[in-house]
Amino acid sequence: MATDISATHYPEATGPVHIVFSQPTQPTRWIEGTTECRHMESLFLLVDDARDAHIRQLMAVFPHLENKNRVVRYANLKMDQHYPENSNSLPDEWGRTRSRPRFGQLFRVETRFVNIGNTSVQFQHRFLTVPASQAKRDFNNREQDEQYATLDEDDEPERVFASAEGSIVFVKWQTDDKGFRFFRPTPGIFQDKSLAAPSTIQFLNAQAPGKRAAGSERPANAFRVQIHLRKSDEDELGHVTNSRYVSLIHDVLTFGLRTGYYANGSGSSKTATDLPKIASYETDAKAEVAVPAGSAFYKRGDVFELYVGYERELKVKPGVYVWTWVEPERIHDEYDVMRFEVCSTENGKEEVVSLSRAIVREDPQKRASL
Asked: Which Gene3D superfamilies would you find in this protein's record (predicted)?
């Protein structure tokens, strides 16, 4: 729920200050609810849109603030729809157990800052369904709360189907003597920490994936998958757009699950560590993975959380690949953790451009549908 704060708290404000801001209600597009990959990619795009809308509405009531360039450092997406308390309470044409929002489902995105630093801001979002009778409600207007206190008889109650956390750094772009652009952090737009609200998300793992120590080897069960980028993956600055990482990582995840390359990590499919080596997807001396022939592997897995960390900018060019592996220990003996290092090659040297993670729960009763 959005929060209005009286202008008496902020004498310089020209209107109500929404610490928690809800975007207008909108319907789900067809492609946003088709496959798991497209659904998660659309959520990453909606996060970008909601974050920018929150910044714009704050700057509108604080006209003295100066807009600044910013870059995203990470995004951590949680699929709340997989938890029983957030499942559909009404029958759905696609089945009672379907939790992904259907085509035309009304929803809204609620945004808040949870931490304000000197050069950065950490934010959180909640994706909530909107009952049909509340389609015209302004969730930022407290005067409407009483009007919409009671749902219509055939309404599906509001539910959280996803949430996300991330951070941005405010930057100043510069150019070096070779003409390459780079940025340096600069003091952020917002310095008043009272504009932050309490955190509302409980992640299975809220921490960033740890970096490997310099010179250390990847786990023995790591394997490498070549990925092919296209010009359509670029943004206006010539870099791979943030949301595109979702489909790239999901492609690698699906490949690993269906081939059984993740099978020797944990759970019922765990095998001995001394395994024969076979060629990975990209065949060379450094691209081998220890996988037992005929090993059991996932029939189906649902992604519960997806963390994407942006270490460096990724350009569309040859020599981009992903190293990935499953961690040896599960979370709560139920969720497998897959790690990803998106790498590019520069002058024959490997550079890690993204550290990412997927938390997956296996459903052994269903066929693979990722």
From this structure: Hotdog Thioesterase
Which of 212, 235, 217 lies closest to 288 in space, CA to CA? 217
Q: Is the pTM of this model over 0.85?
A: yes
Considering the four listed CATH numbers 3.10.129.10, 3.40.50.2300, 1.10.540.10, 3.40.50.1820, the one that applies to the domain covering 223-362 is 3.10.129.10
Cα 188 to Cα 283: distance, rounded to the nearest angstrom = 46
Q: What one-character DSSP code corresponds to residue 218? A: P
Per-residue pLDDT tens over the stretch 162-195: 999 999 999 987 887 776 777 789 999 999 999 9
Cα–Cα distance measured from residue 140 to residue 143, given in angstroms and rounded to the nearest whole number: 9
Residues of the chain with CATH 3.10.129.10: 4-195, 223-362
In the predicted model, residues of the chain with pLDDT beneath 70 are 1-8, 89-98, 179, 236-238, 263-299, 364-370
- One-character DSSP codes across 239-276: BB-TTHHHHHHHHHHHHHHHHTTTTTSSGGG---SS--
What would the pLDDT profile of 187-236 be if each residue is shown by its tens digit? 999 999 999 999 999 999 999 998 888 778 888 778 888 888 887 777 76
- The token pair at 90 is 């009404």
Q: Which fold has domain 4-195?
A: Thiol Ester Dehydrase; Chain A (3.10.129)
Structure tokens at 1: 């729920």
Residues counted in the chain: 370
* C-alpha to C-alpha distances, 254 to 92, 283, 299, 358, nearest whole angstrom: 27, 19, 11, 11
